[in-house]
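Sanity check

After download, print the first record. It should look like this:
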Amino acid sequence: IAFLRAPEALDLALHLLGVVEISGLPAVAPMITSALTNVLTNLMVWPRRITIPLDEWWHPTSIPPRVARGVLRVTVDRACDLPAADLDGYSDPYVVIDVLELDPGGTGGGGTGTAAADDDKGGSAAASGEGTTAPLIAEATTRETFKTTVKSKTLFPRWRESFAFTVFDPRTDRIAFKVVDYDAIGEHDLLGSGVIPQDVLRGLIECAEALKAPVGRTTTRAVWLALEAPRKARAKSRLSRAAWQVHHGSSANGGGTSSSAKAAPRIKLELSYGVLAPEAADFPA
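Expected structure tokens:
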């Protein structure tokens, strides 16, 4: 539950002991309206939200309100050395970002990957996420999903597209991403996937909270992350590169790049985090 903007006016009635209405008194009404407006603004104006599971609505007193802790902005900058999914030796990639929520009582897997700071070339700075994505997604619930635009016929796409979402609990919130090849007909092909390492998110959030950096005045951290390619994509990529070499008359040792020398696919993301007003978290349930 959230308001898009702060309420401009409140229509309310307040009775003392159920008999005397005091909300109409000139000295009392402005004070009550101002107090309630401030509470609603700090608690329920977007991106702050209260989440109430509908399957538990008959036990309202047992459901604590969930208050947004901060806002994380993820900018999908670019990707490098993507596998070729089409027979012309190229792909039509787009990125899907899933905001996941782990079970607080679960193992919290998927946060063991590492990342390195941006070096613009993205060579050795790319991090490994091998074996981390599948267990995480299996244990998590998808809260939000974002998609970039499709870039046609390229293995080195550039997007520069940003997405913002709220962080409720850094211990259970995770960000998973996958690069997918768009096909006009048939199923879209997964080119690679990964998870933003938990130590990266935790470090970013702890730094912003220590500095009390509000939303809109955050610092940005750029990271390169390696993409974990499925077996199907690796096999199809080898077939596509072979077809491309035959079509263009080049060999693996000639004008093209051999599969053994090809760099690992990776993606560059820019992350920024802003802290929301603490009054919302202090408001009683």
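If your output differs, re-run the checksum step. Summary of this record's structure: The helical segments are 29-44, 133-139, 198-211, 231-248, 279-282.
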